[in-house]
Amino acid sequence: IAFPGYVYDASQGRASREEWEQAGTVLYESNADCADGRANRTLEDSFQQIRDIGLIFNVPERAEALIAQMNETLALVEKQVAGRPTLKAAILDYIDENGVPSFYAAGIYTDLIARAGGENVFADQPEQYATISPEVVATRPVDLLFVMEWAGGGTAEEKAEYYFKTFPNAPASQ
Question: Residue 87 and residue 139: Cα distance in Å, rounded?
Answer without folding.
Answer: 16
